[in-house]
Write a structure and sequence with these properties.
Blueprint: E1 9-16, E2 25-34, E3 37-44, H1 58-64, H2 77-88, E4 92-95, H3 98-111, E5 120-122, H4 123-130, H5 133-145, H6 152-173
Parallel strand pairs: 1-4, 4-5
Antiparallel strand pairs: 1-2, 2-3
Length: about 180
């Protein structure tokens, strides 16, 4: 595919302090396809001073294996927000849970002083737009065979990896 295709898209994933409406992002990951490889950028996020530490969930910590103490040495939220915008410049964001990701992206960007967040498209809708038949089956087979590690970089790479496998199937079929 050319830059007019799936390579314009990136899979986004966040890990968060909890699933409440007051939750905040603790890790962000973004993955895309470049030169027939999955590229990933991710970062832990030091809690912004206005985020409520009381909204920390021990259950979320157990799932992600990210202790609150580890976040004290992470880059500040404002720095991560700026790096995120640099990395994602020119990419169209997708997620398998866009409503959650938009909440955490808005919190992250707000901490960096940015007033609006880019749109996040549904990963499944994008997958159905670009793939069909065997290639689409391969996207979902890849996701089923690869366990979600509940870490933002690895989770986003898992999604983009499904697309990459589908692209390889399509390329073999065109030979």
């Amino acid at each position: 595919m050319t830059k007019n295709g799936i390579e314009r898209y990136a899979a986004l994933d966040f890990e968060a302090s909890s699933l409440s409406v007051h939750s905040w992002p603790i890790e962000v990951g973004i993955s895309w396809i470049e030169k027939k490889q999955v590229k990933t950028w991710s970062s832990l996020i030091r809690p912004h001073p206005v985020w409520e530490i009381a909204d920390w969930s021990a259950q979320s910590e157990a799932v992600h294996q990210i202790p609150l103490l580890d976040l004290q040495d992470a880059p500040p939220a404002a720095q991560v927000a700026s790096e995120f915008l640099t990395v994602t410049s020119g990419l169209i964001l997708t997620s398998d849970a866009p409503e959650f990701e938009l909440h955490w992206l808005s919190r992250l960007l707000g901490a960096g002083g940015f007033t609006s967040a880019p749109d996040i498209e549904d990963f499944h809708a994008v997958s159905f737009e670009f793939f069909s038949g065997l290639a689409l089956d391969i996207v979902y087979e890849a996701l089923e065979l690869t366990k979600a590690p509940h870490r933002a970089g690895s989770d986003s790479a898992r999604l983009a990896g499904g697309w990459l496998r589908a692209l390889k199937v399509e390329a073999r079929g065109k030979r």
